[in-house]
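Box 3.1 A note on notation
Throughout this textbook, protein chains are presented in two layers. The first layer is the amino acid sequence; the second is a token string describing backbone geometry. Keep the layers aligned when reading.
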Amino acid sequence: MTHDHDLVLRPSAAQTDAALNPPAGRRGGDLVIETLKGLGATTVFGLPGQHALGMFDAVRRSPLRYVGLRVENNAGFAADAYGRITGEAAPLLVSTGPGALTSLAALQEAAAASAPVLAISSQVPSAGLGGGRHGYLHELRDQQASFRGIVKSVHTVRTASQIPSAVAAAWESALSAPHGPVWVEIPQDVLLAETDLPVVTAMDATPHELVPRPELTAVAAHLLHAAERPAIIAGGGVVRSDASGKLRALAERLDAPVVTTFGGKGAFPWEHPLSLRSWLEDRHTTDFLEDADVLLVVGSGLGELSSNYHTFAPRGQVIQIEADLGKLESNHPALGIHADARIALSALLETLEPVRGASAPVAGTGMVGAGGAVSGAERVSALLAKVTERISGQNLALEQEVLAAVRDALPDDAPSFWDMTILSYWAWSAFDPRRPNTMHSAQGSGGLGYAFPAALGAAVADPGAPVLAVSGDGGAMYSIAELATAKQYDLPVTWLIVDDGGYGILREYMTESFGETTGTELTRPDFVALAESFGVPAVRTTPEALREDLAKSLEHSGPSVVVLPALLRMFAPTHI
């Protein structure tokens, strides 16, 4: 019998010759870039800095595409979106101290949204490590400590020979379920030192599969088979694991209504007869889900927004499939299944017996089930009618018209990225993504400035398709410098800026809570003139002309800006 530890991986003659005769002039930075290339990377994002120049010089001499943004945080958002769109680990190269720390908010969003970002930072020279105060520029007492509570894993390099294994281990960590950001740091002198190590030619960093335990699958299948009022909550884990098709098959098998969380937009077809859509800030939806005798939660931790601000109190049996162990049963007792959503749903489909015999309702037909039971489609229709009636009574026609104009102008397969602004809050509940993995927002951690740099990252991933970014005027100022990036790389991103004169949602919150506002009113630039100063075409539009102006901008081959002066209001959520 042959055991794995008995296997010897013998290099070919060509590999041996190449290993014994490495090219001259290589440095530690070359090992970083060679490893990334060997792992399959084609693109890196970042911003150079003094200590990181060894990496950036190696990028210059490599086949990897470099996309440089103007702020490290925005480079992190671009890498986040690239990872979400491609499913690949997105390398992010930054420098020490201020450069590294400026990326923190982007890495927090990547962690919350399970986006695979491989952040590689320089460090001060090795002599300055260890917590002392040596007076090096950018020196921190313990740089990695600032990242340890945010990223999935931290990987520290002290010698050139450690570089390939450390980068490969980080790559594997980023892509193992749940996806997420990882951190590698390498001292300046290690990046700059010449090396005679062989060229990195083959790296194995296959992500671990997270498979459900079969006894848990058996119990979950039994509970779902016996359920009379099943329902499903689909979160971002369904989108990240590319499990939308399996979710639909299971919902139709069970005749189970499905609601998608804000992070799970697109996980289930919006117009499907079993689709409850995403009206989570609505007591009618909350009541519906609480009434389920078996509630299957897939790829969601049922956090604040997904639980109607923690007012959700399920009365039936909860089954939770979650790849992030820390989120399993973190908010509600459940039959917890620690697994990748796609693999777990496949196991359920294989295990589940036919539901309620031959007389079970066929999803979408409106047929009455066995014994006179109301079908899932009929239950969904009744619920959505209540939601529509509630929203219609709030005098919010303008907001719905603006959102409909955006939807009409955007091609079905075009990705969209949404900042923390009132129109985005509307989109979380009321926007039809039409395709899985096409609608993305910053609601994971809730930082401003996400939409435009993230849209740039998506355009890098697929430069042949238009991309939409949506921001308010306040959030737009966080990433206005990236107009230069969009122009430099001629990326097909249309940026819709809704200009309401300040931080609109905070204005609403403060007015409701205190009767007055503080710090919400802002002086803004002329966004049209500012965009044109970067050489980016721009137009000022109206709600009536938005559909046409936006459609024209999305047809433009490069970047463009559409500015909509409008004071939008948020619909009143219902928690109780």
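The chain has three domains: 23-192, 214-380, 394-565. Residues 1-5, 357-371 have pLDDT under 50 and may be disordered.
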